[in-house]
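note to self — DONT lose this again. spent like an hour looking for the file last time. sequence + predicted structure for the chain T wanted, 346 res
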Amino acid sequence: MTVFSTYVNWRSIVNVVRVLRSGYIAEGPEVKKFEIEFTKRFGFQNAIALNSGTSALELAYELAGINEGDEVITPVFPFVGTNIPLARRKAKIVFADIDRDLNINIEDVKRKITPQTKALVFVSFAGNNRGLKEMRALADEHKIPLIEDAAQALGSDGWGIGDFICVSLQAIKTLTSGDGGFLIVKDARLVEKARRLRWFGFDREARHKYEDSDITEAGYKYHMNDITAAIGRGNLTVIDKIIAHRKRLIQAYREGGVKDAHIWLPIVFTNKRTELRAFLKESGIDSSIHHFRSDKYTLFGGHQKLPNMDELEHTFLLLPLHMKISVADVRYITGKIKEFNIAHGL
């Protein structure tokens, strides 16, 4: 049983064939339809389709006005991809510690906010939104934007309250389009700017009409194409089925003693990670670490003293949760974890 598995609905395959035969595979009608359907299903306005969740973060940081030297508080964990766009902008990155569930530690954020803080970043690790409401309140109190990295949160409860919400549709996410993403912009005044910046800075409607249009700000090539949108649209038709299945697996994990189980992945904590991982492998169960603290990398200046991160970074394992896993499989996995714990007196 692998930790990750990509799910592609048959409608996605039909959609892709149709698009390929149409002769138009760049950003076109499929992307527009996907934006409309995504917006309708999840209840957001101003959802802008992009070529990756990372592009959504890059664009969000640009729209939030984060420039060189600007102070941004961001979690040191889980994925370096959240913080690399900040490093590219030469922002002053202030790493916040984590809490016992590996999400950001709100008290540490409070301690680190200064008059120079330009923005806050929240990441829903594994689809866990604990702390998001508190981060929203802090952002409102200090009148600074909240960038919500919701790459793993789609399908969970309570996500989508940031000023900029970054969604990933990468291969192993709950909803996939192969690769791709959405940026949801709460301030309607920024929507047209976001659409310009996703394609070099051009107003594409004007350019199509007049063959060219002026560029007043430098954008990049962040746009989604119709092939990607065709995959996403097919999977979106069964997203309720996907989410319902994942929630059944979450419930089975929690009943089996894995309490930190969320919409994207379950997390088990142990002081014998290497041994447990080997035991699960022998039992036909894959597990993964997958994410590492950002400050281990030279790019971010090296290891910082963050007590909870220091304590927990070698104790967690990620377990399988996807469409090819059944409730019976989860019971087998949790049974094996219990067997391991008993054998080691845990």
